[in-house]
Amino acid sequence: MGFIARVLSIFKVEKVVIYLDKTTDLDERGLISKLFNYILCPQYLRRKVFPLDPDLRYVGLMPPLNTPNHPLERRINEIPKISYREGLVIGQKGQNRYIVDVGLERPVIVHKRKALQHGERVFLKLIKKNDDIEARLIEKKDIPYYFGFDIAVTDMSLKEVIASFKNKMLIVATSKYGKEIQEEVENLMRKMKSYDNKVLLLFGSPFKGLYEIANVEGFNLDEEVDFTLNFIPEQGTKTVRIEEALCSVLAILNFLYRVYSEAG
pTM of the entire structure? Predict the structure, then answer.
């Protein structure tokens, strides 16, 4: 799971949706979400956010993300003049003044008229002024650089997920039975541009591919998506694991996006 999280972060994926696989009675969406949320949480908040849990006993083996939302600086004199951090509300100091742990040598004070709850996680812009810090509450979307991906667990089926994103972004299904990527590059990039480069990538489950899942749900996959593509033609193994598929697909799309962006 740690490798998957790193791949998603390397290619700046914004959101992961874990849908319900109706082809099996085994439902591990909760466990997957818990592991993702743990590794996404800044190291300095993990012990306060996550209680002891047998599901997390091996998380120490997962590689660190080393993303901007996981800063390592612990002292105020080590951070830049302007920085962004996720914090945890740990108390209140007078009216509309909240104490927030941001992983530094001392907590910061945030002024907010609307009540913040103890244990609430917030995003902050930190402005260093000599040895003091001014902390401003912001939204994640206001941070000017990549700050990790979000996790959404849904009870929706594959077909329902597709329907919820239809006409909002380009929908690309991945399958070894799809058209080989080199046959559709021009069409793919033209369609991506029309959606402002917003793409929903669909992957199967550890047990079934997308065509098998669609067949169980009773719909034609090719009729519901914009493209069904094989990103690893002539694969040398019988199956491709999800982490391998993610790495391959995202690397290819990243390369194509760069090439076509520079070409205008």
Answer: 0.91
